[in-house]
Specification:
193 residues; 25% strand; alpha/beta; seven-stranded mixed β-sheet; 6 helices
Length: 193
Amino acid sequence: VYERFFLPMRTEPIRILEIGIDQGGSLLMWSEYFPKAEVYGIDILDCSSMETDRVRTFVADQSKRDQLGAFLAKYPGPYDIVLDDGGHSMEQQQVSLGFLFPHVRPGGYYVVEDVHTSLPAFYPHRGFAVAADGTNSTLLMLETFVRTGRFESRYLTPDESAFLGQEVELTNLFHRHRSPPSVTCILQRRATR
């Protein structure tokens, strides 16, 4: 679904940040898809061997605001696209969203991949720290925003919740039912008023 949103920016000199590098395939993909982009990656492991003239990496735990702040001190925003494909736990997804969304440019996008980790039935043997009643799940937080216009999360600060509620212009949840099931959310920041 990304091309529906990202194609208009394809030849622009954008800045994209991806959380979760793994083997680096998506950093390479983004640098090829966006030939004028600066591409940044955050991972808990050192992936500096993947750096190029347009790709930069940084070691950080996405659930630690101080480490995300250190990244932003070195590579300040704004970013046209922030894409979370990191650890997929509820705390990681929600802390990153709350902390990094203010650094998305007005009109830019924040993507949370693997929202289906909110559904333990899909991954019964892997822990993503979903509470037994599901009240801390990223999916519930997003669904609550769709229903009420408010972000409610035990992982967000009050200021982060308020900022998200004011600045998220649209929320798109994409669900792929075939195996393996997948849920991705694309949020767009409100354009400059």
